[in-house]
Design a protein that fits this description.
Blueprint lengths: L1 H32 L6 E4 L1 E17 L2 E5 L4 E5 L7 E2 L4 E5 L2 H36 L5 H34 L1 E3 L4 E5 L7 E2 L11 E6 L3 E9 L11 E6 L2 E13 L4 E3 L2 E11 L10 E18 L3 E3 L3 H8 L3 H15 L9 H16 L33 E10 L2 E12 L3 E6 L6 E4 L1 H41 L1
Antiparallel strand pairs: 1-21, 2-11, 2-16, 3-10, 4-6, 4-9, 5-8, 6-7, 8-10, 11-15, 12-13, 12-16, 13-15, 14-15, 16-20, 17-18, 18-19, 19-20
Helix pairs in contact: 2-3
Length: 482
């Protein structure tokens, strides 16, 4: 009995030792899985900040001309084709002139007859005046001579007008180029009957469409959240697939006031005038448009990955493993010394734009990406974070902070930002050149991964325990059955 009891006690001790060893091994394995991300720092320095807005657009001519004819008839000659470059006055279409030619010749003959009649009436009037002065003819005869002369003058004017109209109709049968340009469309051909643009109820037949391709523009659709930064006269560049290594320069011509909604996204058409003296850009080409909305040549810049909003203070303190109160004290001290505002977060309009951008980014699968001013997409607003919201934008932002490693440890400093892009933001106040700021994105992403791994381990551990209990109960029940 004593030996049996000793054997049992020994088995219990060995089992406890194995359990303790296994628990310590599992704990060590869990710690090894948590790779502690070391903070990286970057110095605040001077750089050129360029804020841009990107959009897609389509090339279109500024002045598209539809050429129609004032004359009706059959086309007898058309020496141009699609792509033909013409100068003002070049022949485009010749219409059959048989009818209008005959009318012109008749009008010319009528004018000649009216001219002779007018000369005869004038001679008769002069003789009647002489005879009336000599009391040779009566007053009614003199008046009849004057009336005949007036009718002859009227007929002369009418015949002259009819001849002018006949000449215009004859000239209208010959359609010439109104401007210098290139033929873009040619819906008719030789032998086709066309209708007059002036006498036809339908507005006449379109002979061709042409435009001066040296004067073109790009129509781009800019999202509602970015349209506030687009102003008339801003410089822009356009790139097209046909010339991937060339950038075409232009300027914003105007912003059309009527919005366009595509796939539940509100956008505004922006017209960009482009220099196309070489004629390389053609109507219908699709291009990528980059509009420069702001530029700071020598700005004191901080990485957007180092800036967060006040609501992220507790999260950053937990990641840094420091007391949140110490960060609040240093933040209050820097805010008092710099006179930074005490409001919470960015201005209302900026915060609203940031939230809308973040939602759109999440819809397009950008939640897991590392965005400006934020960590990964795991936490709400993670892509755009609490930092300079909205990516490339311009305008002052208040109530932001950055983490600086000082002599006494980590310090939170209140900063105000100006223009910013996806990489850097202009420092208005709160930081000085040479300050070393912590880049927080990697630490936030690591904290999210560690939290996710802990939750997975907890779930696997609870499931493993539950499974063992059930199996033990089954074995116990089975033993009872036996």
């Amino acid at each position: 009995m004593n030996s049996n009891l000793v054997w049992r006690l020994g088995a219990v001790v060995v089992g406890l030792a194995l359990l303790i060893t296994g628990a310590m091994w599992m704990r060590g394995r869990g710690n090894n899985d948590e790779i502690v991300a070391e903070l990286t720092f970057e110095a605040v320095g001077r750089r050129v900040l360029v804020v841009t807005i990107e959009a897609t657009g389509t090339v279109e001519p500024i002045n598209l001309v539809e050429v129609k004819s004032k004359a009706s008839g059959q086309i007898t000659r058309m020496p141009v084709e699609v792509g033909t470059r013409v100068r003002p006055g070049d022949l485009l279409v010749q219409i059959d002139t048989l009818d209008v030619g005959n009318a012109y010749r008749q009008a010319a003959a009528a004018l000649e007859a009216a001219r002779v009649q007018a000369q005869v009436a004038e001679a008769q009037k002069e003789r009647a005046e002489q005879l009336y002065a000599a009391s040779t003819i009566t007053a009614p005869e003199h008046e009849a001579a004057l009336l005949s002369y007036a009718n002859a003058q009227s007929a002369l004017v009418r015949a002259s007008t009819e001849l002018a109209n006949a000449r215009l109709r004859l000239e209208d049968a010959t359609v010439r180029a109104p401007i210098a340009g290139t033929v873009l469309e040619k819906p008719v051909s030789v032998g086709q009957m066309i209708a007059s643009a002036t006498s036809s109820v339908s507005g006449g037949t379109t002979i061709l469409k042409m435009a001066d391709l040296r004067l073109i523009r790009v129509r781009a659709l800019v999202p509602e959240s970015d349209i506030g930064g687009v102003k008339e006269g801003l410089p822009c560049t356009i790139s097209v697939d046909a010339y991937p290594n060339r950038r075409f320069q232009g300027r914003v011509e105007k912003v059309e006031p009527q919005a366009v909604v595509e796939q539940s996204v509100t956008m505004f058409p922006v017209l960009l005038s482009i220099d196309n003296e070489d004629g390389l850009l053609l109507p219908g080409m699709n291009g990528e448009v980059v509009v420069t909305t702001a530029r700071a040549a020598d700005a004191l810049a901080v990485p957007v990955d180092a800036v967060r909003g006040m609501r992220d203070l507790g999260t950053i303190a937990a990641i840094l493993d420091v007391d949140p109160d110490s960060l609040r004290v240093s933040l209050r001290r820097s805010r008092d010394s710099s006179g930074a505002p005490r409001g919470g977060g960015a201005p209302a309009d900026t915060a609203g734009r940031a939230e809308r951008r973040a939602r759109r980014a999440a819809m397009h699968g950008g939640g897991a990406a590392q965005g400006p001013g934020g960590g990964g997409g795991g936490r709400p607003g993670g892509q755009f974070g609490g930092g300079p919201a909205g990516g490339a934008s311009a305008g002052g932002r208040n109530a932001m902070f950055a983490v600086v490693k000082g002599p006494g440890g980590y310090e939170a400093r209140a900063v105000r930002l100006g223009v910013s892009n996806f990489d850097y933001a202009e420092v208005v106040s709160g930081l000085a050149e040479g300050d070393s700021v912590a880049l927080l994105g990697a630490a936030e992403a690591q904290a999210q991964r560690s939290g996710f791994a802990d939750r997975i381990r907890n779930r696997l551990g609870s499931g493993f325990t539950s499974g063992n209990s059930n199996r033990s109960g089954s074995r116990a029940g089975g033993g009872g059955g036996r």
